[in-house]
Sequence to fold (193 residues):
Amino acid sequence: MTVEKLLFVNACVNRERSRTLRLAREVIARHPECEVDEIVLEDLGLRPLDSETVDRRNGLAREGRFDDPIFDIAHRFADADVIVIATPFWENAFNSMTKIFMEHSGAVGVAFRYSESGMPVGMCRARRLYYVTTRGGPVPDEGDLGFRIYENVAHTYGIEDVRCISASALDIITNDAEAIMSEAVEKVRTMLI
Fold:
């Protein structure tokens, strides 16, 4: 029997007290059958794709040289059976580390390709992507641009089941943040995987 791979993209900051990380760990715990591959973006130090890097990556792709280390992140993303993206809600979306990761993971020829008619065709094998976030304000999932972006990107890559796991309104002074988090954690513990 083949062990499934769960890619955990950890874009959480203040990890020792990150509410997003706490929620993500609950999601991961619901997948005991998976081997977890965690990428801690803060430690990885990925740089944005600049002109030189994009030209190099595109050249390698044209040559079919997808074994180059420049594609390592994209391969880890494309080869996962389950993906958990954990990023706090910042500026109506996600933090910059998450965007940079998205640039590296979305390599043409690894995450997706173009058909003869120019339409994207997904190449990722993940059956599900969880977008895990916590928000200080009362923002619903459908108002979270980060989730919407990842939902669209995942569909381009062939991942049809995209779920948002969230807790909102945590920083409203009259709210009980711990009660909100406990409710979100309990929801994860009882959800169907």
